[in-house]
Specification:
about 500 residues, mainly alpha, Growth Hormone, Chain: A, 2 domains, two-stranded antiparallel sheet, globular, MFS, cell membrane, MFS_trans_sf, membrane, transmembrane
Length: about 500
Amino acid sequence: MGSSVLSGALHGIKADFPEYNNMVYITVTGIYLGGFVLGPFLWAPASEVYGRRMVYAVTLIPFTAFCAGLCGSKTITALLVLRFFAGTFGCSSMTNAGGLISDMFRAKDRGLAMGVFGAMPWLGPALGPIVGGFLSPISWRWAGAVVALFGGVLALLHLLYLPETYAPVLLRKRANALSDETGQVYRCVYDAAKPFSTRELIKTQLKVPFILLFTEPIVFVLSIYLACIFSILYLQFTSFPIVFQGERHWSPGISSLAFLGTSIGCNIALLYMVFWGNPAYAKSLKQKGYLPPEARLPSAVIGALIIPIGLFVFAWTASPARIPWIISILATIPFGAGMVLVFLACSNYLVDAYLPTAASVLGASTVTRSIMAVVLPLFTVDMYDALGVNWASSVCAFISLVFVPVPFLLMMYGSKIRRMTKHGREADDHGLEIAAARAAAIAADPEAGQVDADEKWGTIGEDVRTPIHEEDDPMRQAAMPKSPPLGP
């Protein structure tokens, strides 16, 4: 919501800071996403060094401060700078939530957790203009104050109730405590083979996402696809006022209600994932024991089909004003549902298909869509002036139409495409090894049953690390006596 809340209050910003061109006012929304380009490279490695809880603690407090500070902005430059830093610190929730969910849920349950979380990055921006639109008659500064208030409450809740969930950080703390207590050197199982290096971690976080983005065709295509959908959503923050305020002469508050269609679509997709999509996947996984990454894509097929349908209907019912307004708003429901279905399915697919480097793959996707969501909406006003409402809106529909075959092609040829590249082949082999080990464990002890095998080996699609047996202490195996002190 923080990214889009001021888009519904741009009239007030224009009144306070007049005589700038349209791109500057559109940048008030987009510059927040500029922080999403920088933030992942800061908070992702930080969470692996200091833990999830620490990152949330040190980012949500500055986020609240920057959101509160922009309420007192005296110049447009100050407003843009504060928005950028608010986005930089605020994106920690997007950057680390996937890791937090991976820490807490197994693959068969993670789809539900990711579904609830994954709908929020789409639902929040759709609700933001409604909040900003109704607060704009009072002052656009109140819109920023609402985000600051929410940020402060969330920061307090995180500080009070969020535990540390990242296993390597917890085990390293335990190892250090045991070393101090016993006089021996303890290392956790994650550092036993190779000592942990902060420098190497940071270098990997900065380098690997771009290597994967430009060497893995699947990562590149899906990142561009998600970026285009994300950009269309943010383009609507400028195009909806053109349609509903310019064409239909609605007030800013009433015109912001047009985003309810998108919000309803997001919720429908979420309900589908909760009550049908994820249970069906979990049931199939339990029956077969192994599912290829392509098993995540059926919902993406549905989403890819209904997105252009919704956008084309919107494009040709938004204008002229004699067409009932309800038709164009209803057309945004399939768009909202489709983008959530595509986002969740493609994100889960990327995680399953590139399991050892999943964090870097998602980082590449996040940076790509953030850059495009900043740049493409800048040309919205010029595009609508040049093409008119119908054809300008159709451009978005045609862009989404280009990507309709992508989920179908990946379902048929995704495995073959991965085998053609180094990282894809390694990830594919890694998944098959986990499946074979899991099958062998069940065959060796069939009485243990499916549940015990899941507990011991996990399932494909899970962030599986070295299996830890109950009889093994992950610290004790690496324990070494400290060198005795020199001298008397």
